[in-house]
Design a protein that fits this description.
homodimer, SSo0622-like fold, four-stranded antiparallel sheet, alpha+beta, 5 helices, 9 strands, about 200 residues, about 40% helix
């Protein structure tokens, strides 16, 4: 008789298949591979951190958002200007320049494993990390690994442009710095995860 | 013989004494009182959400930060201009206009209680909420109740000022809207917590 996989192992198989099909940001692959190589963990979603230029028809209206530019690496001012030029023209809403920190969701077999992972995430500088989605039936717990590097700056609203060349240069250099900081935390976390092996 | 308080109840007593001594933001008091009135919970820290003007000598250098203005309510452009005028003059670092969402830390007697509170927080719109600081010895768990309303905008760097009157007007109206949204989530959470009674 074939052995029956536990619900956790069956879910992990599905998550790994999705990851293989859809891929993930290159910068986050090493830590995903290391986590998925451990019997008691698997990753369900991830972002290595990014810089975006995005049009929002209203504050927080994420579903109707239109990406004009999206980068998982340091950007140049010219690239941002190019994205701004391609953003939807509208008399409503606003165009935003946003930096997002790395984020990972990791399913853990039980609470003890989740707490161990949470500790590593906090030690690596992912200060906003926490446990989510505790399923009391199966014991499965999801850890959200999240950091604080963040910037949300309006660039234009309606027909009014707010930025100057100097402002954009400052935004871009600050964004690149925040992105690099997020990646260095990912590196520290990658080293920390070794302790779970 | 006097009954011996559990570690949880002893900690709660200390936390309530600190709260009585230090106080908390007026807008968050009702929800703190409701949570602290429940036997299995107590609050350890809170902020109702705020708008700040802050000088940072380097990106993320929070310890050396100097607050030039801090409000837990809607602000007027003139107030923000007044705060900017009082900020430290420096050739290094930058002056930031920041909106922070409400945040609460709630200690829970055990994991089941924490999961119930987490669910209420997520249902009320506090999307970044999670469990933290699980103490495997005592079973005590802290829930971080946190939301997404956030803005981090540089206003000036070195001797360069980035904002125009129109930009500041847009920032202030967006900030006031984000603050109001955070408070309406606090209201929903306050109603939700009733279900734990």
């Amino acid at each position: 008789m074939a052995s029956v996989a536990s619900p956790f192992d069956a879910e992990k198989k599905g998550a790994l298949e999705r990851l293989a099909r859809r891929g993930a940001d290159a910068e986050v692959m090493p830590v995903l591979d290391r986590l998925n190589g451990l019997a008691d963990f698997f990753t369900t979603s991830s972002c290595a951190g990014r810089i975006v230029v995005i049009y929002l028809p209203a504050v927080g209206a994420k579903r109707e958002a239109v990406f004009a530019g999206k980068w998982h690496r340091a950007v140049e001012v010219e690239e941002v200007l190019g994205a701004i030029a391609e953003a939807p023209a509208s008399t409503e809403g606003a165009l935003w320049f946003i930096v997002q920190a790395p984020i990972l969701h990791v399913a853990c077999r039980d609470t003890d494993k989740a707490v161990a992972l949470l500790r590593l995430a906090l030690d690596a500088g992912f200060k906003y990390s926490g446990l989510k989605g505790l399923e009391t039936a199966t014991g499965r717990v999801v850890v959200e690994v999240m950091s604080t590097e963040r910037m949300d700056v309006p660039l234009a609203a309606g027909s009014t442009t707010f930025y100057t060349d100097r402002y954009l240069a400052f935004l871009v250099s600050t964004a690149n710095l925040l992105l690099a900081r997020g990646k260095s935390k990912l590196g520290r976390f990658y080293e920390g995860v070794r302790m779970l092996e």
